[in-house]
Amino acid sequence: MNRFLLPLGIFIVLVAFLAVGLNLNPREVPSPLIGKPAPAFELPQLHKPELTFAPKDMQGKVWLLNVWASWCVSCRQEHPILVELARTGTVPIYGLNYKDGRADALRWLKQYGDPYALSIADAEGRVGIDYGVYGVPETYVIDKAGVIRFKQIGPVTQDVLEAKILPLVMELSK
Amino acid sequence: MKRILPFAFLALLALLPGAASAREAAPTAQDVVVEKRMVAISEELRCLVCQNESLSGSQADLAKDLRREIREQIQEGRSDQEILDFMVGRYGDFVRYRPPLKGTTLMLWFGPFALLLVGVVVLVTYLRRRNRRVAETRAALSPEEQQKIDALLGRNDAGQKP
User: Fold this and answer.
1) B92 with A134: Cβ contact below 8 A
2) Domain A35-173 classified CATH 3.90.550.10?
């Protein structure tokens, strides 16, 4: 009996390691920007290119920065959730239109609805680099002091919204 | 005068390409140096879109943008270390193929050696124990049993290995 106990133990440990390891998402790389001030930028707005937007305009407010593009397939998946969130008015969502053509972006918003308080055009993707964007869509929760508190890589799902983003927004808005 | 003018014009034309190439030669030589450094740096970095490819080999849009970023930073006179820090500051240690040695990466660096050590210890213990068991079994055999074994193994002299 004892002979089998050790191999069985090793097997169970191995299974546990594999179970945890294989269920991790290798696409989710922890962002070093959590807890750091949101990188500053000033970019033209998508709808009114003559106006600009900078994160410091949002000082004193909790807000979401959602990186999206008309060429991004998963953006379409999360979009209804963002539209619904915008309708409730819980938290303002600002869109960073990443490496996109203006006409395509505007058409996309017309077709699927526009949940954004406003969108900013990052045509060359430079602001995206400053924010460590590597998989659109990405969503940042930024607090009143302008510090990034949470980053969602990939589409925002109903689960993530209810379990993480909304509670965090509530706490930060106090 | 009228006859000289075309010649003068031609002479001027002939000079032009030389002047133009003289102006371009310097940046080209510079570019080779910049490009070499860019490739060296980007080979140390992981492309986050296609995670098992280096930044230098990837054709992903983000990789192209990041290579452009590295190239520009080299031209601005930043050091390799500063550029690496720039990337790590945005994408984390994961972006580096050779992550720094620190608390969270100890297992990564020394885990394989620790496993090897465990393997060696297990192997040595097992072999020693087996040797001891063989010796004990042999000592416990009666002379008849020993003879029987030797007969089965086709050996003539008792207790001797073939």
Assistant:
1) no
2) no
